[in-house]
Design a protein that fits this description.
alpha/beta; 10 helices; 4-stranded antiparallel beta sheet
Length: 238
């Protein structure tokens, strides 16, 4: 479903992503595992149109999307849940969720009715969001904001989700809850690319994984096999 060929990307000076190639099959969950600064977030932004690649090609569903704006990439069904949540703090939980569905809601008329089914789905997945639907997003805890960020992406009805560091800054008990939701999405058939420092849980959740160091893939393979690899265990699993 996603094919990346020799992708290079960065912000200034040297490339942060240096010739990465990877594949994600439809319905699978693939993990990008690496330390902070390895290039995972840069790669996620380049795939989703928030950063123009300096080289290489990206194909989604058999069509090239290299360099397309993020809005067009999202319309095609490839959506990013960004690092750091990036919720709109002054807006309510429900207003944040409506923004995720904005491209497909009517400009006039009963837009709430048009999104009601999706809202119910999000509130079933994350009951706390339903309880806080009229609360300002900026007043939520970090874990609740992460749930909101995932819910906002789901409101767009994506076919492919890129999740960038969903465990960042969260307490262990909240990490478990967030990853249970990701596991449920994967079980439902959602295709997922999971960028994550927390290697143990990422490898347990995913089907395949790529280990990234300094902007390059250094290991790849089935997640179960990589979890038993001595080099991976020493560097990432303790």
């Amino acid at each position: 479903m996603l094919n990346v060929e020799n992708l290079r990307a960065g912000y200034s000076g040297d490339d942060a992503v240096r010739g990465i190639s990877l594949e994600v099959a439809e319905g699978s969950c693939v993990a990008l595992v690496g330390a902070n600064g390895a290039g995972k977030s840069t790669l996620a932004k380049a795939l989703c149109g928030l950063l123009i690649p300096r080289g290489g090609r990206v194909f989604f569903d058999g069509k090239e999307i290299t360099g397309l704006p993020a809005s067009e990439v999202a319309r095609r069904g490839l959506c990013l849940c960004p690092e750091g949540r990036r919720v709109f703090g002054p807006l309510t939980v429900e207003e944040n969720l409506f923004l995720g569905a904005y491209p497909r809601l009517p400009s006039f008329g009963p837009f709430r009715r048009a999104a009601s089914g999706d809202l119910k789905r999000i509130y079933r997945m994350f009951p706390r969001l339903g309880e806080r639907r009229l609360q300002q997003a900026g007043s939520l805890s970090g874990g609740e904001q992460q749930m909101l960020a995932i819910g906002r992406v789901l409101m767009a009805r994506p076919r492919f989700m890129v999740l960038d560091e969903p465990s960042m800054g969260l307490a262990p008990v909240v990490v478990k809850e967030v990853f249970e939701a990701i596991r449920s999405l994967h079980a439902s058939g959602m295709t997922i690319l999971l960028s994550e420092q927390f290697a143990k849980i990422a490898l347990a959740l995913s089907d395949r994984a790529y280990i990234i160091e300094r902007g390059s893939v250094v290991l790849e393979g089935a997640s179960k096999g990589l979890a038993k690899n001595p080099a991976v265990m020493a560097a990432y699993l303790g």
